[in-house]
From TrEMBL, chain A:
Entry-linked PROSITE patterns: ABC_TRANSPORTER_1, ABC_TRANSPORTER_2
Record keyword Secreted present: no
Protein name: ABC transporter domain-containing protein
Organism of derivation: Subtercola boreus
Family matches, as InterPro entries: AAA+_ATPase, ABC_carbohydrate_import_ATPase, ABC_transporter-like_ATP-bd, ABC_transporter-like_CS, P-loop_NTPase
Domain ABC transporter: 6-238, 260-504
Keyword Membrane on entry: yes
Region (Disordered): 241-262
Domain of life: Bacteria
Automatic annotation (TrEMBL), chain B:
Compartments, record wording: Cell membrane
Alphabetized UniProt keyword annotations: Cell inner membrane, Cell membrane, Membrane, Transmembrane, Transmembrane helix, Transport
A GO MF term: transmembrane transporter activity
A Pfam family reported for this protein in Swiss-Prot or TrEMBL: BPD_transp_2
Database matches in InterPro entries: ABC_transp_permease (IPR001851)
Keyword Cell membrane assigned: yes
GO cellular component: plasma membrane
Topology within the bilayer: Multi-pass membrane protein
Record bears the keyword DNA repair: no
Residues annotated as transmembrane: 25-48, 60-78, 85-103, 109-133, 140-160, 180-200, 229-248, 260-278, 285-304, 310-330
Name of the protein described by the UniProt record: ATPase
Source organism per UniProt: Subtercola boreus
C-alpha cells in the first residue's frame, strides 16, 4: 500500500477579520501529482505559505513525509518549492546554484568535485547532462526551471511544490517539462501543482483539489472531473442562472454594454501580432467606453496594453488613436497622440520615489507646465496637481512630500494622476488596483467611471474580477489571441471558461436576444 | 479633466523646511564653523583678499567640474574622465594655435577657432561616453576609467610630455581679467552655479534628469527619452569640464600634460559632501556648491596654518571623512533601497 506524503487536517488561518483558510483537508499519496486549484482569494497562497512554513496555521495540523520516510510537522525546507519568480543567481553555475548556501565541504572548504558530481547526478535525473558547470545566465528557460527544481529538492525533500511552473516557457518547453514531471512521479516524487491553466492540469496531474473561500470544496482523481465541473467548483454556486456578477466588495457591477453604442471609435488595434508565432488581435474601444482586457499570465493581454501605451513594439499590425497610427515603442509620441498609461507595477516604472507627490503626478507633462522663461512654473504645476489630486482623491500631507512616504493606495492614485495629467482621450491601465486596499479601490473605480462618462476611453488590462466588473465589456485573450468578447452581465463561469481558452466566441446576437426576451 | 473643480486654493504653507531644503542647508553651519576656526588660527584668513583671491579663485576650476559631475551623478551615472578633459581640452586648443617651435602643431589656427575646436572635441568625448553607457549598456565606471586613461595618454602624446607656455592673450584672459575688481574665474564659477542650479531645479530638462536618476524605468514610461537625455548629460559634463580646463590654463598661463591629474577624487568628495547621492536622483547644485566652498576653506586653512606640507593630504582626507559622517548625522542619509526591477 502506498503511504501518504502530505496530510493536512482541518487547517485554518485568519488575518485580522479575513478568514483566509476556514477548514482545509488534503491528503496526497506518495508519487502523486496533485493539482491545487482556486481563484484569486480562494486561499491558495495562504495554504502554500502554511505548507512551506512561512506562516503558522491558527488551527489544524500539516504533516509531511521527510527524507527518511517519517511523517513530521511541516516546516521550513520540508517541501521543495519552485515559485514563478526566479531565485537563481545568474552569475553562478547551475551546480553552485543547486547547492547555494549548503555546499558540500571538505576540510572546511567547498568540495568542488563533490558538488559538481552531486549536481550533475541530480540534473541527470531530470534529463540534462553537462549542465552543472554552465552559468545560469546562459541557460534556456526550461533548463533554468529544472535547475530551480533541483535546488528545491537538494537536501532531501520528497515533496515538490510547483507554482505556475510553465510561466515564461513556450509550448514546446512546457511539454518537455510535463514529461519530466511524469518521470519524477515514476521515481516517487510527490508534486503539488499550482496553476491557473486548466489545460495543463489535465495533462500532467493525477488528482485535483479545488479551494474556495478557504475550504477544499472538491477533491478527486482527474478522471472524475471535466473542464466544466472544475470551473463550477471554483466559481461556486451561482445565485440565479444568468444573474449579474457581483464585485467581491458587494457593489453591483457598473458596466453597461449599451452605454457607448453609436460613439466613435478611439482606440483601434489592427491585426496586431504580439510576436512571431501569435495570431492577429483586433479590437476597438469607443469614446467613453470601458473595456476590460484579461487572460491568464502570459496570455498577451498585458503585452498588448503595454504596446498601446507605447512601451513595447509588436511583431506586426498597427494601433490607431482617432484613426491616426501610433509609432509603437515611443511613449512620448503615444502621450502626444492622447494615450495615458498606468504601468503594471508602480514600484518598477510608475514612480520616482524621491521626487515629490506633485512632481510625480506631472512628470508626463513637464513641457506643458512651463512659465514664460521656459522653466517649470510652480504655480501651473500646483494648479494642475490640485485638479488631479481632487479628481483621484489623493491624500497627502503636502504636495511637496516625497511620494515614497504615501500609502500604497495613494501612491497608486499618483500613478493614475500621472497618466491623466496629459489629458488623454484614451487611458490604458494595467492592474490599476494592484496592492491597494478596498477603500482606495472603490475610490479609484468611481474616478474611472466618472472619467469615462466624460468621454475618456478606458482599456483596463487586469486579472482582478473587480477591475473587470467596472467594464462595459471584457475582451479575453488566450495564448496571444482574442478568444472571447463578454458584454457586461457575463457570469463568473463564462469569464473563467473564457480565460482558459475553451469558450467559443460569445454569440453576441444570442445574448442580445436573450436580454430582449427578458424585457418583454 | 478641465471641468474638474479646482480645490479651493491650496493651503498656505507654514514656514517650515522640507527635508530637501534641510539637507541643502546642512553644510551652512559647518562652513560657518570652518570660517570661525580659520579666523582663530590665522589673522590673514578672514580678509576679502584671502577669501576672494585664494579660497574662491582656487575653488573655481574644481567647482565647475563638481557642477558637471553633480549633474551626471544626479542622472544616475558617473564620469571619471572629466578630469582628463580638464587637461585635454586646453592642450588641444593651445597645440592648434602655437607654432611648432613652441611645441604646438604649427598649423597657426586662430585662437577663437581653436577654442571652438576644443569644445567640439570635448562634446564628442562626452557623446561617446554617453553612447557606450546607454546603447551598449556598459558600466559607467569602467567606460569612463578607460576614457580617462586614453585621454590622459592623448594629452601627453600631443605635447610630447612638454609643458606648453607663451600662450596667446585670448587664453590668458580667462585667468587674468578682473571685471569689477573680482577675478573672472569667480564670475564664471558663480554664473555657472546659478544657471545650472536654476536649470536643474526648475527647468523641464533638469527635472527630467532627476527623474532619470531616481527611477529610469518610471522616467521612460512617463515619455522621457532616457537615452538621448543621458547622452546630453555626458556631453554637458564634458563641455563644462573643457571650460574648467581653459580657466585653469588661463590662470597658470601654461598647460601641462598632467593638468587635472587626480582632480576627480576631490570632485567626488565635494559632490558627496554637498549631498549629491552616488545612487542618482538626489542632491542639489547648491549643495554641491557648499561642498566646494567647504573643501576650499579647509584647504586654505591648512595652507595658512603652516601644517607641514607632508601632512596636508592626510589631514585633508581626514576632514573629508569627518564631513561625510557629519553629513550623515545631519540627515543627508543615503536613500532607502527602493525595490528595483
Amino acid at each position: 500500500m502506498i503511504s501518504n506524503a502530505i496530510q493536512i487536517e482541518h487547517v485554518a488561518k485568519s488575518f485580522g477579520a479575513t478568514q483566509a483558510l476556514a477548514d482545509v483537508n488534503l491528503t496526497v499519496a506518495q508519487g502523486e501529482t496533485r493539482a491545487l486549484l482556486g481563484r484569486n482569494g480562494a486561499g491558495k497562497s495562504t495554504l502554500i505559505a502554511a505548507l512551506t512554513g512561512g506562516i503558522e496555521p491558527d488551527a489544524g495540523r500539516i504533516q509531511v513525509i521527510d527524507e527518511s520516510g517519517v511523517f513530521t510537522t511541516a516546516g521550513d525546507g520540508s517541501i521543495g518549492c519552485v515559485f514563478q519568480k526566479s531565485t537563481l543567481v545568474p552569475t553562478l553555475t547551475a551546480g553552485e546554484n543547486i547547492f547555494l548556501g549548503h555546499y558540500p565541504t571538505r576540510f572546511g572548504f567547498v568540495d568542488q568535485a563533490a558538488m559538481r558530481d552531486q549536481a550533475a547526478a541530480m540534473l541527470y535525473e531530470w534529463g540534462f547532462e553537462r549542465l552543472s558547470e554552465r552559468l545560469v545566465s546562459s541557460l534556456e528557460p526550461l533548463e533554468k526551471k529544472v535547475v530551480e527544481i533541483c535546488r528545491a529538492l537538494q537536501g532531501g525533500p520528497r515533496v515538490l511544490l510547483l507554482d505556475e511552473p510553465t510561466a515564461g516557457l513556450d509550448a514546446g518547453a512546457s511539454q518537455q517539462l510535463f514529461t519530466k514531471i511524469e518521470g519524477a512521479r515514476a521515481r516517487g516524487v510527490t508534486v503539488i501543482y499550482v496553476s491557473h491553466h486548466l489545460a495543463e492540469v489535465f495533462e500532467v496531474c493525477d488528482s485535483v483539489t479545488v479551494l474556495r473561500d478557504g475550504r477544499d470544496v472538491a477533491t478527486g482523481g482527474i478522471e472524475q472531473f471535466s473542464f466544466d465541473s472544475i470551473v463550477s467548483a471554483m466559481a461556486g454556486p451561482v445565485d440565479g442562472a444568468d444573474g449579474p456578477a457581483l464585485r467581491r466588495s458587494g457593489q453591483p457591477v457598473s458596466g453597461d454594454r449599451d452605454r457607448s453604442s453609436g460613439q466613435k471609435v478611439v482606440i483601434t488595434v489592427n491585426a496586431v501580432e504580439l510576436d512571431t508565432h501569435s495570431r492577429a488581435v483586433s479590437l476597438e474601444v469607443k469614446k467613453g467606453e470601458r473595456v476590460g482586457l484579461t487572460g491568464l499570465d502570459g496570455a498577451g493581454h498585458i503585452t498588448l496594453a503595454r504596446a498601446i501605451a507605447g512601451e513595447v513594439r509588436v511583431h506586426q499590425g498597427t494601433v490607431e488613436i482617432d484613426g491616426k497610427a501610433l509609432r509603437l515603442g515611443d511613449v512620448a509620441q503615444a502621450i502626444r497622440s492622447g494615450v495615458g498609461s498606468v504601468p503594471e507595477d508602480r514600484h518598477i516604472n510608475g514612480l520616482v520615489p524621491d521626487l515629490s507627490v506633485e512632481e510625480n503626478a506631472t512628470l508626463t507633462v513637464l513641457d506643458r507646465i512651463r512659465g514664460p522663461w521656459g522653466f517649470v512654473s510652480r504655480k501651473r504645476r500646483r494648479v494642475l496637481y490640485s485638479e488631479l489630486s481632487s479628481s483621484w482623491a489623493i491624500k497627502s500631507a503636502d504636495p511637496t512630500q516625497a511620494v515614497s512616504e504615501l500609502s500604497g493606495g495613494n501612491q497608486q492614485k499618483v500613478v493614475l494622476a500621472r497618466a491623466l495629467a496629459s489629458d488623454p482621450r484614451a487611458l490604458v491601465l494595467i492592474n490599476p488596483t494592484a496592492g491597494v486596499d478596498v477603500t482606495a479601490k472603490e475610490s479609484i473605480y468611481s474616478s474611472l467611471i466618472e472619467l469615462s462618462e466624460r468621454g475618456t476611453s478606458l482599456l483596463i488590462a487586469s486579472n482582478d474580477d473587480d477591475d473587470l466588473a467596472v467594464c462595459d465589456r471584457v475582451v479575453v485573450m488566450y495564448d496571444g489571441a482574442v478568444t472571447a468578447h463578454l458584454p457586461a452581465g457575463y457570469t463568473e463561469i463564462e469569464l473563467m471558461t473564457a480565460v482558459q481558452g475553451q469558450a467559443p466566441l460569445a454569440p453576441h446576437e444570442d445574448l442580445t436576444r436573450h436580454r430582449e426576451s427578458e424585457r418583454q | 479633466m478641465t471641468s474638474t473643480i479646482l480645490q479651493a486654493g491650496t493651503r498656505p504653507r507654514a514656514i517650515r523646511m522640507s527635508p530637501a531644503v534641510r539637507r541643502e542647508l546642512a553644510l551652512v553651519p559647518v562652513i560657518i564653523a570652518a570660517l570661525i576656526v580659520g579666523t582663530i588660527l590665522s589673522p590673514t584668513f578672514l580678509t576679502a583678499n584671502n577669501l576672494l583671491n585664494n579660497v574662491l579663485v582656487n575653488s573655481s576650476v574644481l567647482g565647475i567640474v563638481v557642477v558637471a559631475e553633480s549633474v551626471i551623478l544626479i542622472s544616475g551615472y558617473f564620469d571619471l574622465s572629466l578630469e582628463s578633459i580638464v587637461g585635454l581640452a586646453p592642450m588641444v586648443a593651445v597645440w592648434l594655435v602655437l607654432p611648432s617651435s613652441l611645441g604646438g602643431s604649427g598649423l597657426g589656427i586662430p585662437s577663437w577657432l581653436a577654442i571652438v575646436a576644443c569644445f567640439a572635441v570635448s562634446a564628442i568625448i562626452g557623446a561617446i561616453n554617453g553612447l557606450l553607457v546607454t546603447k551598449l549598456k556598459l558600466n559607467a565606471f569602467i567606460v569612463t576609467l578607460a576614457m580617462l586613461t586614453l585621454l590622459r595618454g592623448v594629452t601627453t602624446g600631443i605635447s610630447g610630455g612638454q609643458t606648453l607656455s607663451r600662450l596667446p592673450a585670448e587664453f590668458l584672459f580667462l585667468g587674468s581679467a578682473r571685471p569689477f575688481g573680482i577675478s573672472i574665474q569667480i564670475w564664471i564659477f558663480v554664473v555657472v552655479v546659478i544657471v545650472v542650479a536654476a536649470f536643474m531645479q526648475n527647468h523641464p530638462i533638469g527635472r527630467k534628469v532627476y527623474a532619470l536618476g531616481g527611477n529610469q524605468a518610471a522616467a521612460a514610461s512617463a515619455g522621457i527619452k532616457t537615452t538621448k537625455l543621458t547622452i546630453a548629460v555626458f556631453v554637458f559634463g564634458a563641455l563644462l569640464s573643457a571650460l574648467a580646463g581653459l580657466m585653469l590654463t588661463g590662470r597658470i598661463a601654461s598647460v601641462t600634460s598632467d593638468q587635472g591629474n587626480g582632480l576627480i577624487f576631490t570632485v567626488f568628495a565635494a559632490a558627496v559632501i554637498g549631498g549629491i547621492s552616488l545612487n542618482g536622483g538626489q542632491g542639489t547644485i547648491f549643495g554641491a556648491f557648499c561642498g566646494v566652498l567647504l573643501l576650499g576653506i579647509i584647504q586654505n586653512i591648512l595652507t595658512l596654518s603652516r601644517v607641514p606640507s607632508y601632512w596636508i593630504a592626510a589631514i585633508y582626507g581626514l576632514v573629508i571623512l569627518c564631513a561625510l559622517i557629519f553629513n550623515y548625522l545631519a540627515g543627508a542619509r543615503p536613500r532607502r533601497n527602493t525595490q528595483r526591477a
